[in-house]
Amino acid sequence: MRRSSRHSSTYYLDTPPAPQHTHGWQTLGRLAPYLWEHKWRVLFSFACLVAAKMANVGVPIVFKNMIDDLSGTAFVVGLPILSLALYGTLRFANSLFSELREILFARVTQEAVRRISLEVFRHLHALSLRFHLERQTGGMSRDIERGNRSISSLITYALYSILPTVVEISLVLAILATRYDFGFVAITIVSLLAYVVFTILISNWRIGLRRRVNETDSAANTQAIDSLLNYETVKYFNNEDYEAGRYDKHMRQWEDAATKSQVSLSWLNLGQQMIIAGGVTAMMWRAAAGVVDATMTIGDLVLVNAFLIQLYMPLNFLGVIYREIRQALADIERMFALLNEHREIADAPDALPLRAASLAVRFESVDFSYDAKRQILFDVSFEIPAGSTVAVVGESGSGKSTLARLLYRFYDVNRGSITINGHDIRQMTQASLRSAIAIVPQDTVLFNDTIYYNINYGRPNANREEVIAAAEAAQLAEFISILPLGYETRVGERGLKLSGGEKQRVAIARALLKNPPMLIFDEATSSLDSKTEKAIQASIESAARGRTTLVIAHRLSTVMNADVILVMDGGRIVERGTHAALIEHEGRYAQMWALQQQEEEGTR
Predict the structure, then answer these.
(1) How far are the Cα atoms of 281, 291, 292 from residue 287, in angstroms, in the given order?
(2) How far is CA 345 from CA 136, 403, 408, 520, in A?
(3) Is there a domain that residue 118 lies in?
(4) What are the b/e assignments for 368-396, b being 16+ CB within 10 Å?
(5) Residue 221, CB half-sphere, CA atoms under 13 Å: how many?
(6) Same domain, residue pair 249 and 153
(7) How far is the CA of 448 from the CAs of 24, 440, 493, in angstroms?
(8) Is the N or C terminus of the chain more exposed, i.e. has fewer CB atoms within 10 Å?
(9) Burial group, residue 603, by CB count within 10 angstroms (0-12, 13-18, 19+)
(10) How far apart (Å, rounded) are the C-alpha atoms in residues 16 and 560?
């Protein structure tokens, strides 16, 4: 398992790191701008909710008056029509304003979720390649999923449940204080404070258990996704039981954490109900005593009982809300931690777009290391004149592919510079730089979609004829013609339904369709047979004509016609020249050429 201290939010397989804990108000503060864009909807929604709570509190008062009217000593001459009408109106008003609030606020919540999700998605694409090489996809995707789901809960509970509940309790306390003696208010306040303090203390303790549930859940999901993505490797080594054992280990940890969390929730609920039961008993005892002493009517007893029920529901819901908010904050912390992840590669404030139709590239005294302890490139200098082809050859690990990554600005150089048409690429916008370059990578990864989609991805606005022409240029048309679904054939996860050579041809077609002023071929024919390689080599040379081209290759036969060939060894350029000049020089390149010629003769 790989460990690194460079990124605090790297997702590891067995011990996901705890995110930085953020204060709840900070999280709400980050949400506020998304909500305030719809301030009128927010204000109207809140007004509707307050109106609903006032109607809800008014119902017991009307009910009390009806009871007193119907149970008086005087002869009842008729039904209390006005009270009945008001009772029904308030009942309906409560539902009306509650639903109206939901209607008004629905758009606000869902748009906030969409925009935050989009922001996280864009930010992840803006992070450096270093971050994406180190993160674990399964754990990160589960954290984003939980975070998105929790945003809606957090907004709803925090902004439109807590305040209205406080308003409703305040209204009830005010009525009790003005109509009855202070003992009712005292019992209610003591019960409320005991409930709130108990809930906060226990819920704060439980949040650690909830976080552990999330961490073990992410770890299990990470391991499962990683195993399924490497399905073939698992099968090659007959390690199904081994993978199942690893997954079960994480699931057992999750089981223990989830069980502790659930048991603690039951204890929390039991304690809350005990406090409420004590308060209810004390309140009813005082009300009953008042009726016996003739200081209260039957209607007053009914009113106090109804208020007890009114208080019980929001009070109980307040505990649920607090728990949900704390859990939502725990869930959303990890997603917001992604937004806090530092963008290693960012556009300079004064960055300008790259607009030239032809590109001249120059590496000037470039040093680079992925890790400070291991340098990859040492004082690398070379030039690719506009419209020419430069090839880079060398043994594996010599730093060839790193040149392409630096040119694409997946990383920035440690020393020296890379310029295009005399301008440092660090002073260019990344979007314009990458739009001017197409690459066929050494390890081709395809989307789990159709062949047509994967080719068309090179230029999404291209028409079907252009896509087909690119496929033909990449020697892919004949293969597609024998497929039952043709271009609509799905390639599977990461393109696993295709062979290595077929994937490379899709990648070549995609690059050709992009039609940029510069091409990079990074071992573009390494997975092809000799016959297909020769056919595609002609297509590559045709596509490279008139374009600035960097060819990174291990097979020297594919770069014989390059204008300049660079030979790399240990991160340094040790030779440079044309194929003929390097053969005549009888150095490293000549040795590699002779060795590959012997290998080819041995396979004939």
Answers:
(1) 10, 6, 9
(2) 20, 16, 11, 21
(3) yes
(4) bbeeeeeebbbebebebebbbbbbbbbee
(5) 19
(6) yes
(7) 39, 18, 5
(8) C
(9) exposed
(10) 49
Nearest residue to 480 via CA among 462, 467, 461, 493: 467
Please report which helix (H) or strand (E) contains residue 365, including its range. Answer: strand 361-368
Structure tokens given for 527: 């997975």
Angle at 519 between CA 515 and CA 522, to 5 degrees: 135
Torsion of CA 371, 377, 379, 383, to 10 degrees: -130
Token reading at 350: 């004064």
Residue 226: half-sphere exposure toward Cβ, Cα within 13 Å: 22
Q: Note the maximum CA span of the chain.
A: 126
Amino acid, res. 3: R
Range of the domain at 475: 439-515
Residue corresponding to tokens 């002609």: 538
Both tokens of 236, joined, read: 């090659």
Q: 241 and 98 in one domain?
A: yes
Q: Which residue has the tokens 């270093």?
A: 130
Over range 288-312, report the average pLDDT.
78
Q: Residue 224's CB: how many other CB atoms inside 10 A?
A: 17
With CA atoms as reference, report the closest residue to 103 among 145, 52, 59. 52
**Taking Cα atoms as reference points, which of 328, 327, 409, 339 lies closest to residue 368?**
409
| 175 in the same domain as 148 | yes
- Angular region, 74: left φ>0, alpha ψ -120 to 50, beta rest: beta
Element (H, E) at 54: helix 39-70
- The verdict on residue 346 lying in a domain is no
The three-state secondary structure class of 364 is strand
Note whether residue 356 is domain-resident: no
Q: Is 147 exposed, middle or buried (0-12, 13-18, 19+ CB in 10 A)?
A: buried
> pLDDT tens digits, residue range 159-206?
667 777 777 888 888 888 888 888 888 888 888 888 888 887 887 787
Residue 357 counted as domain residue: no
What is the phi/psi pair of residue 125, to 5°?
-70, -25
For the chain, state the CA radius of gyration.
35
Residue of 4 and 471 predicted with greater confidence: 471
DSSP 337: H
pLDDT in tens, 110-152: 887 888 778 777 777 777 666 666 665 656 666 677 777 777 7
292-299 contacts at long range (C-beta below 8 A, 24 or more positions apart): 296/180, 297/67, 297/68, 297/71, 298/67, 298/68, 298/71, 299/64, 299/65, 299/66, 299/67, 299/68, 299/71
Task: List pLDDT tens digits, range 329-384.
Answer: 777 777 777 776 666 777 888 888 888 778 899 999 999 988 778 888 999 999 99
Both 480 and 572 in one domain: the answer is no
Residue 486 gets which letter from DSSP?
G
Report which DSSP code applies to 448: S
Cα 507 to its chain centre, rounded Å, is 27
Phi, then psi, of 16 in degrees rounded to 5: -60, 135
Q: Which amino acid is at 322?
A: Y
